[in-house]
Write a structure and sequence with these properties.
Layout (H helix, E strand, L loop, with lengths): L3 H5 L4 E3 L12 E4 L4 E5 L2 E7 L10 E5 L2 E5 L2 E2 L5 E2 L3 E4 L4 E3 L11 E4 L4 E4 L2 E2 L2 E2 L3 E4 L4 E3 L11 E4 L4 E4 L2 E2 L3 E2 L3 E4 L4 E4 L10 E5 L2 E5 L12 E4 L4 E4 L10 E5 L2 E5 L10 E4 L4 E4 L18 E5 L10 E7 L1 E4 L2 E5 L11 E5 L2 E5 L10 E4 L4 E4 L10 E5 L4 E5 L13 E4 L4 E4 L10 E5 L2 E5 L11 E4 L4 E4 L10 E4 L4 E5 L4 E5 L4 E3 L12 E3 L4 E4 L11 E4 L4 E3 L11 E5 L2 E5 L5 E5 L2 E4 L1 E3 L4
Parallel strand pairs: 1-2
Antiparallel strand pairs: 2-3, 3-59, 4-32, 5-6, 6-9, 7-8, 9-10, 11-12, 12-15, 13-14, 15-16, 17-18, 18-21, 19-20, 21-22, 23-24, 24-25, 25-26, 27-28, 28-29, 29-30, 31-32, 33-58, 34-57, 35-36, 36-37, 37-38, 39-40, 40-41, 41-42, 43-44, 44-45, 45-46, 47-48, 48-49, 49-50, 51-52, 52-53, 53-54, 55-56, ...
Length: about 600
Amino acid sequence: MSTYKNLIGKDVNFLSTDPDNDAAEGQIWYNSTSDAFKDLLVNSAWASASNLVSGRNQTAAAGTQDASILFGGVEGPPPNAESGVTQEYNGSGWSNGGSMSASRYELGGAGTQTAGLAFGGIDGGSNTTATEEYGGTSWTSGGALTQATYEQAGAGTQTAALAFGGQRQPEIMENNTQKYDGSSWTNTGSLNEARRFAFGFGIQTAAVAAGGSSPPTPNTTSTEEFNGSSWTTVNNMNTGRRNGGSSGILTAGLVYGGADSSPSNKTEEYNGTTWSVQSTLGTARYNHYGAGTDNATALYAAGGPPSGLAITEEYTRSINVITAAAWASGGNLNTGGRNGAAASGVQTASIIAGGGLGTVLNNTESYNGSSWTNLPTLGTARGYMAGATASPYTATVVFGGATGPGGPYVGNSEEYNGSSWSEENDLNTARGYLAGFGTQTAGVAAGGTTPGPRAAEVEEYNGTSWSEVNNMPAGAIAFGGCGTQTTGLIIGDVPMQGATYDGTNWTTIPTLNTPGNYNKVFGTSASAMTAGRNPSPVAGTAVEEWNGTSWFTQASLATARFNGGETGTSTSGLVAGPPPATEEFTAGTSALNIKTITTS
C-alpha cells in the first residue's frame, strides 16, 4: 500500500500553526493545535473591484489584470456620446490617461498598458480604418486597416497584432483577418465562419476566435484557432454568446459575460482543446472586451445595459481567497446635521465636533468602532471649520469656521484634552471652509474664505499661537487636508485641486480624476483617501485613493454625501454625516484558502 510520501514525495508536516505562504500549495499537514489535517485548495472566483472613473460601453481594452487600459466607447445616458477617453487600472483603481485622437466606439484593441493598440470602430457615424498606438501616456497615429471595420476582435501586441471578423457598412459580415507589424496592416487567412462581436485572445501566430454573432445564428458556439496563416475549426464553446470579455492565450484562455438571449454572467475556460464552465460574474453584462494574459487572472469593466456601467470585476484562480476593499455600515451619529464638521482619530477611536445644516452645532461625539457617544460641547457653535489631532483624539484642536449658515466667519481655536474643550489663541485671519492637518502642537490651517475670494493664506500652530507661513499655490475653499505639519496634503476645490506641503513650501500634485469641491481627506501625504465629494451641486458616492504619485478610484460609498467628517487611514477609514449614517472602509485582503480535511 502506497504512503502519502511515496505518492507525493513529501512527508505530512506536523505543525502547531497553519503555514502562511504559498509553499504549502499541494501539501497536507497536521495542525496539532486544532487537531486536524489540512490542505490548500485552488479557488476560482470573480470579485468586485474599484469602479471606473466614468461608466461606458462599446469600448476596448488591453493589458493585464493589474496594469490595463480601457479606451473609446460611448458614455451615457442616451444619446451616449462617443468617447476618446482612456482610463488606466493599476490593480487597485482607475485613473484618467491620455485621450485618443478621435472618439470612437465598437473598436478593436490589443497590446499592453504601455504599448496599446486601438483599431477600427465607428467614428462620427461611419466605420473607420484608423489605428492609434498608446505609449503609456498618449496616443499616436498608426497604419490604417486594409478596410474599415467595426465590432471586430483583436489579439496580440502593439507590434504584432491580429484583427479578425466584425462588419462593415452596409451591414456586411466579415471573415477578414488582418495582421499588424507595428506600422502597417496586411490581409491574411480568412475565418471559416464570418462573425461579429467574437471573443478573441492569444497572440498573432496562435489566436482564438470564439462565439460571436454569425447570421442567421445570433449567437454561435463555433471556435477557430489561428496558426499565423490560416484558421482551423475546433471544439465549440458550451454556450453561444457575443460581445463579452476575453483574455489569455491559445492554451489558457477565458471568455466571460456577453449576451445570448439576454446579458450573460457566464465564464468559460479554454485549455487549447476543450471548453469548461467556470465561476460566474457578479453582474451579467455585455459590450466590453476584457484584459489579462492567462486563464488565472482577468479584468472585466464597463459594459451595459442600459447604458455605460462603471462596474469592474477581477477574476483570480489561486490558492488565496481575495476579499475586495469595501465600505460597511457603522453606528449612526446622534446628531446627523454635521455639514462642515471637524473629525479626527482612527476608525475605532474618533471624534467629530460642530458642523450643521441650517443651524450650527456645538455638540461633540466620539466613536468606539460601533456607536457614537455625546461628549462635552464646544465653547463656540460653528460649522465649516477644520481640525488637527494626534492619535488618540484626546489631543485635538479645531479652528476657524462659521457661526451661522452664511457667516460670520471666526478665528476661534479650541483644544480638547479628553474631558473638556478650552479656548486658545485665535487664527490671525478669521475664516471658514478651510482645510486643516497636523497635530494639536503642530497644526496647519490652509485657505478658506474670509468672506470674499478664495484665500491662499496658511498658518501654523505650535500648541499656543498661530503664525503666518507661505501661501498655497492658489486660493481654495471647501476642501480637505491630512498629514503632518512637515508632510501635508490638501485636495479639492476646482480651481486648485491639490498640493503637498513640506513645512516650508507647497508643490502642486495631479488632480482628482473627477474634480469637485467639499472634499474631506484622511490618511497621510503618501497614502490618502477622499470620499463622498461634491463634483456638481449634489452629494456623491465617489471615492479616490492617493498613492503618493496619482489618484485612482476605490470602492464607492453606499450613501451619497459631502462635507461631513472623515478620519482614519487609507486602509481603515471612517466617514460620518451628513446624513447620520456612518461608513467604515476596510482595504482588500488576500488569505490562503485552507481546508480542514474531514471524513464526512
